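User: Could you go from structure to sequence for me? I need the amino acid at each position, not a summary. Structure tokens:
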């Protein structure tokens, strides 16, 4: 069943916005009587049936409503913006499919690209929740400098994935409470000072396996682990 994203949708809503109406009728070829789901990104999923399949203003009625609660732990993933947009968008897409709670672009010493297109990434996120049926649209925070982030981070579990040779914890051997934040560095990894600053601030080092992963792969790996344990 198709999913549509409409953040203003409530139990009394009867019309899809023009962009979603056009997609439903022209692309998906939905017709009168067909059912579809509406996500508002806040945990509500509405199952509706079409009364008038108009591509400019699709009219529907809601048959049932479900409300979902966020599953804990909530994953806050802070990742350095990647040099190539397609790799960052790949990470954002997969993270949204797997239920990440929030994504924070992390500006590190070795970050090559310090500007992100939030509007474009938001479109990627919406597409991902529609594809996956995730009832929650993740939070996309503004970019923040590394030291400012670790100073303001209040997650109950704080982790850093870095490439330096040292003792590291396995995610499978750790226990987590309400919120978890994970730091993923840029191509070239965190600097030694950044790693030490994070450790001094209480972050625990974690391993993501024996192989060296690209930044987007590391982020996806973390999201996949927490997706599976919820």
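Assistant: Here is the amino acid at each position, in order:
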């Amino acid at each position: 069943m198709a999913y549509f994203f409409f953040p203003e949708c409530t139990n009394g809503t009867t019309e899809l916005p023009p962009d979603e109406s056009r997609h439903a009728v022209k692309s998906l070829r939905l017709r009168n009587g067909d059912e579809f789901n509406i996500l508002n990104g806040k945990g509500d999923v509405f199952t509706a049936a079409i009364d008038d399949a108009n591509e400019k203003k699709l009219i529907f009625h809601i048959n049932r409503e479900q409300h979902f609660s966020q599953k804990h732990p909530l994953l806050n993933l802070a990742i350095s913006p990647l040099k190539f947009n397609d790799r960052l968008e790949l990470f954002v897409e997969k993270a949204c499919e797997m239920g990440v709670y929030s994504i924070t672009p992390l500006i590190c010493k070795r970050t090559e690209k310090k500007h992100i297109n939030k509007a474009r990434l938001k479109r990627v996120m919406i597409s991902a929740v529609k594809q996956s049926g995730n009832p929650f649209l993740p939070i996309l925070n503004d970019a923040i400098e590394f030291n400012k982030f670790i100073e303001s981070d209040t997650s109950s579990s704080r982790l850093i994935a870095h490439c330096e040779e040292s003792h590291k914890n396995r995610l499978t051997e750790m226990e987590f409470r309400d919120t978890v934040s994970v730091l993923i560095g840029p191509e070239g990894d965190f600097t030694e000072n950044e790693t030490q600053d994070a450790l001094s601030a209480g972050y625990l080092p974690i391993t993501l396996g024996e192989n060296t992963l690209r930044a987007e792969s590391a982020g996806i790996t973390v999201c996949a682990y927490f997706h599976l344990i919820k």
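One structural detail worth keeping in mind: The radius of gyration is 20 Å.
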